[in-house]
């Protein structure tokens, strides 16, 4: 999972999972599907959603395209799958506060651009 700004510093020493830096200067936490839930990265906590940030600075929490091949929550036509709207509202509320800080705003803009680019091939 991609790490949000400052998560590498926070998680360092608290998790046995490997943290790697990508060529695009983003940190990734590699896991084997098991983790100490207390120290899950933010991307795991909000999965399978992502707070998209458009060029006008409008925030919208949507299903993350990158989760499509691995997450059953995309199948909203299955009666047992119910998405809690409060969960999405909470993600929105948290990220509206975070994007007031330039480092988070820029991070979300960059990842949004990446996801929008990937949508062209999906």
Description:
The protein has helices at residues 7-11, 42-46, 85-98, 102-119; strands at residues 18-21, 27-30, 49-53, 59-63. It has 122 residues and is α+β, with helices and mostly antiparallel strands. The protein has 2 domains: 1-46, no CATH class; 51-122, no CATH class. A hairpin with a 5-residue loop joins strand 3 (49-53) and strand 4. The longest helix has 18 residues, at 102-119. The chain is globular, with a radius of gyration of 15 Å. The model has no long low-confidence stretch (mean pLDDT 86).
Oligomer: single chain
Enumerate the spans where pLDDT stays under 50 for 5 or more consecutive residues.
none
Structural class: alpha+beta
**Number of DSSP strand runs:** 4
CA radius of gyration is 15 Å
Approximate shape: globular
Give, in spatial order, the strands making up the sheet with the most strands. 1-2
Straight-line N-to-C gap: 20 Å
Strand content: 5-15%
